[in-house]
Amino acid sequence: MNRTTIEDAVFPDCPIRNIMARISDKWSLLVIYTLDKSEKEPVRFKELQRQIPDISQKMLTVTLRTLEEDGYVTRTIYPEVPPRVEYSLTERAKSLLPHINSLIGWALENAGAIIKDRKEANRR
């Protein structure tokens, strides 16, 4: 999937689909949430990778670049040997956090019923 150009075939000038597609992919919300919940901010790449053990190095890199392009994450590079790179949330991402937390709360409240419905649907 081209992560930079997502257009709605019916409404190509509508930016909402583009924005929603980029933040609701498999990893973006999890990376934002993990950066927020990190005890120390900013967070180095390897620490972020340790906190999300099932994400590959390549996918984490792609996700962080996309979040940086959209203004959710700031990347700071320190001219050291070896180079040190740290990531932190921008104010835009912080303004998204209450919505992410609401979604997590909703998922927790409804998880049991959703799993039950899935099992019933699979039995049919």
Number of structurally distinct domains: 1
Shape: globular
CATH superfamily: Winged helix-like DNA-binding domain superfamily/Winged helix DNA-binding domain
CATH fold-level name: Arc Repressor Mutant, subunit A
Write the layout of secondary structure elements.
Blueprint lengths: L14 H9 L4 H10 L5 E2 H7 L5 H13 L3 E6 L5 E6 L1 H33 L1
Antiparallel strand pairs: 1-3, 2-3
Helix pairs in contact: 2-5
GO molecular function: DNA binding
InterPro entries: HTH_HxlR, WH-like_DNA-bd_sf, WH_DNA-bd_sf
Keywords: DNA-binding, Transcription, Transcription regulation
Architecture overview:
The protein is mainly alpha-helical and 124 residues long. Helix content is 58%, strand content 11%. A hairpin with a 5-residue loop joins strand 2 and strand 3. It has a single domain (15-123), classed as Winged helix-like DNA-binding domain superfamily/Winged helix DNA-binding domain (Arc Repressor Mutant, subunit A), CATH 1.10.10. The protein is globular, with a radius of gyration of 17 Å. It has a three-stranded antiparallel sheet. It starts with 14 loop residues before the first helix and ends with a helix. It comes from Porphyromonas loveana. This is HxlR family transcriptional regulator.
